[in-house]
Specification:
The complex is a heterotrimer.
Chain A: E1 6-11, H1 14-18, H2 21-34, E2 41-46, E3 58-61, E4 65-67, H3 75-84, E5 94-95, E6 102-103, H4 110-113, H5 131-136, H6 141-149, H7 152-162, H8 174-183, E7 190-195, H9 204-211, H10 213-227, E8 231-237, H11 241-256, E9 261-264, E10 269-278, H12 287-294, E11 318-322, H13 323-335, H14 337-341, E12 351-358, E13 364-369, H15 374-381, E14 391-396, E15 402-405, H16 415-420, E16 429-434, H17 439-453, H18 459-476, H19 482-498, H20 502-506, H21 509-517, H22 519-528, E17 542-544, H23 554-558, E18 564-565, E19 573-574, H24 584-588, E20 594-596
Parallel strand pairs in A: 1-2, 7-8, 7-11, 8-10, 12-16
Antiparallel strand pairs in A: 1-3, 3-4, 5-6, 9-10, 12-13, 14-15, 14-16, 17-20, 18-19
Chain B: H1 7-17, H2 19-28, E1 34-39, H3 42-46, H4 49-62, E2 67-72, E3 84-87, E4 94-96, H5 101-114, E5 121-122
Parallel strand pairs in B: 1-2
Antiparallel strand pairs in B: 1-3, 3-4, 4-5
Helix pairs in contact in B: 4-5
Chain C: E1 3-8, E2 11-16, H1 21-27, E3 38-40, E4 45-47, E5 56-59, E6 66-67, E7 78-80, H2 84-99, H3 115-122, E8 140-141, E9 145-147, H4 157-165, E10 172-174, E11 181-183, H5 200-204, E12 210-212, H6 216-224, E13 229-234, H7 255-265, E14 269-272, H8 273-296, E15 306-307, H9 312-321, H10 335-351, E16 358-364, H11 368-372, E17 379-380, E18 383-384, E19 388-391, H12 392-401, H13 423-426, H14 433-447, E20 465-472, E21 475-483, H15 485-496, E22 504-508, H16 527-543, H17 553-563, H18 569-575
Parallel strand pairs in C: 1-7, 13-14, 13-16, 15-22, 16-19, 21-22
Antiparallel strand pairs in C: 1-2, 3-4, 5-6, 5-7, 8-9, 9-12, 10-11, 17-18, 20-21
The chains are: A alpha/beta, B alpha+beta, C alpha/beta.
Amino acid sequence: MAKFKNHILVCAGTGCRASQCEEIVENLKLALEQNGLNKEVQVVRTGCFGFCEKGPVVKMVPDNTFYVQVTPDDANELVLEHLIKGRKVNRLLYVNPETKEVVSDSKHMGFYKKQIRIALRNCGFINPENIDEYIARDGYSALGKVLVEKTPEEAIKIIKDSGLRGRGGGGFPTGLKWELTLKSKSEQKYVVCNADEGDPGAFMDRSILEGDPHSVLEAMAICGYCIGADTGLVYIRAEYPLAIQRLKIAIEQAREYGLLGKDIFGTGFNFDVEIRYGAGAFVCGEETALIHSMEGLRGEPTVKPPFPSVRGYKEKPTNVNNVETFANIPPIILKGGEWFSSIGTEKSKGTKVFALAGKVNNVGLIEVPMGTTLREVIFDIGGGIKGGKKFKAVQTGGPSGGCLTERHLDIPIDYDNLIASGSMMGSGGMIVMDEDDCMVSMAKFYLEFTVEESCGKCAPCRIGNKRLHEMLEKITLGKALEGDLIKLRNLANVIKDTSLCGLGQTSPNPVLSTMDNFNDEYQAHVKDGKCPAGQCKALMHYIIDSHLCVGCTLCSRVCPVDAISGERKTPHAIDTSVCIKCGACMEKCKFGAISVQ
Amino acid sequence: MAKVKTLDDLRKMKDELKNKITLREKADDPESLVQIKVSMATCGIASGAKEIMNYFIEELDNQNIDAVVTQTGCMGYCYAEPTIEVTLPGEKPLVFGNVTTPKASEIIEKYIKGGELVDGIIPDSYNTF
Amino acid sequence: MEIVKLIIDDKPVVVEKGTTILDAAKTIGVKVPSLCYMKLEDMNFENKPGGCRICVVEVEGRRNLAPACKTECDEGMVVKTHTVRVVNARRTVMELILSDHPAECLTCAKSGECELQTMAQNLGIREIHFKGEQSKYKGDKSPAIIREMDKCIMCRRCETACNDVQTVGVLSAINRGFNAVVAPAFEMDLDHSTCTYCGQCVAVCPTGALTERDYTWKVIEALVDPEKIVIVQTAPAVRAALGESFGMEPGTLVTGKMAAALRKLGFDYVFDTDFAADLTIMEEGAEILDRLGRFLNGDKEVKLPILTSCCPGWVNFLEHHFPEMKDIPSTAKSPQQMFGAIAKSYFAEQLQVPREKLMVVSVMPCLAKKYECTRPEFSVNGDPDVNVSISTRELAQLIRNANLDFKSLPDEEFDNPLGASTGASVIFGTTGGVIEAAVRTAYELFTQKQLEKVDFEELRGMDGIRQATVDFNGLPINIGIAHGLGNARKLLEDIKAGKSTFHAIEIMACPGGCIGGGGQPYHHGDVEILRKRQRAIYQEDAGKPIRKSHENPYIKKLYEEYLGKPLSDKSHELLHTHYFDKKKKVEINH
């Protein structure tokens, strides 16, 4: 086998593919060939590196140089300079925005320093389409170990000892779930991988499936052995074509190697995996709705109990875990439950992957130990707030979660702390907001999502969320009355209290948590008719300060609706009934005479 | 590719496949390994740096020594090309000049494996970053 | 039997494991209000999606409220059904449901019978605090059923009826969230779907979302038209249920009062569909004997079992779902259509008027009959044999309109000649009745012997599928009975697979037969009402002086004067029909 002196790792996740990483790979290969290096240097497409803010990312191995925002045109230079002449291409290195320091090795970047990668261990490291690279990284040895050396009960004990809890949102102890499914008596059982990632902005599961599909397959097989199932089903949204493609390749390769199929490791254990496509309904992330969807029924939840571990897919005991949960399983088996439980907090062990988004400098995918504070995540890893603005809030848990503020920044992140603070872990979406974000509008945005995604089965979710949204709309339009806030809170509480499934039981969280944490802002909208963040257009008024206006007429000329009148060289005025609040006048005014109130 | 029939099959396979990614694994934590940087500017390449680099890569691999061999730009010692910089774990980097194949072999045998200094060291006159 | 002990509203309760909180509460007299939940015992109908959330209760140790209809009792559970938290939640959810419901009670067909209205009253809703956008769906007017889905509260009972009980599979929820609606696929209209118009969806709908197509106005128009001779026929099951609409005990027979009321309403001739039912037996019985005889003689062309064909919902089901079997049912028209054909020929001739001058109105427990009378094969030169079919409920409405004190009306008789009937025709109104009536006649015609006992108890009952063997003088005749289309499907699948050993099968689309028809007074989930109606039907039969169709003197007279004999050419022309393959006719309406 030819031995490569250098590897060039190119991120080929969905995000980087959209910014031409395929062309980068092609150009790199071409440049290597032209320079006679194609036998010495290997170009590897990997899964997501996580640092999506600056993608596409190209990493040179073995010197670990981390190039960011690479374009296809840069490929030639990378080969000539970095590989042939041994000189780093400085303009493509990451620059710390605060210190202006150039950082060439990703290990020294603030973004990566505090991360521990367990679920993402192979993402950005191996070629996800090559099972050999996975095996070289101890792949499938956890499955081998379990099949050859452990009973199902022993294996489940390792998972229980690890303290791993479901990463999809609920945080149910994984080992316990497996044990319950094991104890359900049935000839036929199923392992289901929930890859119906639905939170807006979240892409943890997609990245794992794109970057390390075998880890999920291996874990599903381990689970199958533990609970007594021979069939695994991956329920994945059809909007994830790349993840589906890589998963399909991985399944094919694993079957070819005999790591899926009949008599795995000569132990007589059979297990195979099928892919089921979802249409991307948020509610189908709820396990009973997911199961109905797989059965060809309407994607609607049913009341639990019975839990899927007792009666699930095709009425058989079914263990449903999310992608990230599965990705944690092989390292736990190999390194032991104690190793895993040494990471994290008392009740939340291990790490958690978050999709960091919103107004932070470093948008991307991160994995941190449980117990890391929000401050560390937002400021150290996330690099602080964009444009030097002030941090206002962070929404964790997606549309089911809540909004946390300045005073929550030093709370160690884990399942229980987040719930105690009025939010939740959810699947790991984390959206950061700055001083320009209106919290009422934010709550309204999330409600819009849940209204859209409710299945419509139960009345509180179907109608209640619609009404919540309408009330928030009223507030942002300045049409709400004082009593409306009391009604809003009561309605939100009743929806939580009476909805059928997790979607409705959590959908009012963004409203309740913003009402708790930003009561002043709600009051300002309702009582004073003002939006403190200046986001609610209906509550904004552009006015001209007659002392500062010199009557230059610039503003009236730029106004698209002729809302500004006034004689030349005399102060102008805006007719607020006509004004559409586009802000063009304010931008044009050279005298600072126009302001928003 | 043959089927994996037993756990031993998998282990054997893993050992065979390991070198596919060892380069990446080592790169993740170079401080714990022997690092060799070969000066690969025009003068270095002209005086045989590439052969020396290949020699190091193969020889260290043959002897199962965990090491990272990378190219680097001109070190400024054109009079002594090929030049290499060797960093043992926890040690300061040392620069060797006029490295020929026998010299390279000596560096491996004595300095890298035994920590014993050999001729040809260029005195430390700068700091690497 | 495993039992669990729990506390509900501070009272200890002991129930069988698997009992829901809703049922457990009932045992100690605690009524937890519920809306979407409905169970029809023994009818394979249990609707508990847990969707309306009206029945929520507080369970100690549980984070949120639990739906009582769907939560099973656990050992040691402590339940509170009417705490402030619960009442607030219940009222708020009710207000939400009402906020998405048109406040059209004044003109709604369901007003007074509406479960939503009743629940709103019970919960004391006087104001809706959450006003906002309301769902808007296009209306759908089929000849039999009207869908006004703006009024739907997503209880999903119609889906359970259509899919679980009837296995017709037309109605299911589509779209998401606030836009979710129960509809046929692609939101096509019912008349483009494979709907059988059985009306079981209407029978269980709690609101005015699903109702019958109302033709009372057409009836009134005809009654006030001096040019028209308006004839009415009433189906057997109507007399066993109509009284309920006037507060009478379920199972009260109101045959005489009904005849009196119809006469007071101004119908020129008050006739009885029962007469036509006797006629049906003559034709169908003859057909059974003919086919059976040929079959026994080894005629390979003959297909058995023969299936009854009185039920138009069932005929629609056959045409849509089993068209390949369209040669198997009896070709005899339904009693409604036989009546129409005879009225507009034989009777019109007696009156010496052209058939167009007659207006035939039928009062049926059924919504499919509304569709049946619009079938083109049941009209002559565009003049339908039966002009209009109204339901039991619509007749009750007409009686109320006329301000008749129904309960105190004197009993009156039907008019002749099309009003005379036997006990055999009366039992057409319940499952098993048609085949029992047919057996009474077929036995005597086949064996040439007098029946000792006309009651065939083995054919009666409420089990979904029943079978019995009747001894025809040494020849065992295997008879099958199915009511509810889901049960019918099972027997049909057997026939298709060549596994059926029946000689004759009776099929009724509605659970219970016509007594449980989609046009009957609403049972609101009380199956006991259906049982009481059934008992009334058999009571009427038992009280009749003549109990065999072929002994009806007016039937004999009809054959003598007009038809000749069963299966004659004249009979074929007037009283028999054929069926169509409608499988391909399903189209998407876009």
